[in-house]
Predict the structure.
Amino acid sequence: MTDDSIRQIGQRLRGLRDVLDIPAEEVAELCDISLEHYLKIEAGEADPSVYRLSRISKRYGIDLDVLLFGEEPRMGAYFLTRRGKGLSQQRPNAYKYQSLAASFRGRKTDPFYVEIDPLPEGKTFNQNSHGGQEFDYVLEGQLEVTIGDKTLVLDEGDSVYLDASHPHSMRALGGKRVKFLCIVI
């Protein structure tokens, strides 16, 4: 995500708490982070992560797109996303998410097209966890998925379905960008 999008998401989170009269401590606990870290997210000084935003959206009954993009879903019968046209968020640490159902109201899953650039040698992503389940299908490249202390390597055409409450992370292997479909349920 860009600095500006992180700042805007923080403002939306603060607005959500104000409207629903939710203490910051409650949201920090939901996200399994310290209050200090959560307040940095609201201030636009820390990356909120899609997974944390997903937890917040499900707990408080707000569409994930409202938190990510500031837009209410509008479509109820179908929503078409053309190649490269989904609402996207660039995150620090080489992740790029593109929502594939951004404007579909009441959806039961959150499908994303994700690209991960390779990290410099020795650098890794922090593991995240979130409620629900996750399905990842590799379209291009080689993806390393770490779930707890188990590491899996997925090639093009491979997939993994996981209980997303277990800490997990992903990274590109082979010095090349990985492209995959991620469905958060």
Notes: Strands lie at 88-91, 95-99, 110-116, 133-140, 143-147, 150-154, 159-163, 168-172, 178-184. The CA atoms of residues 35 and 65 lie 24 Å apart. The radius of gyration is 16 Å.
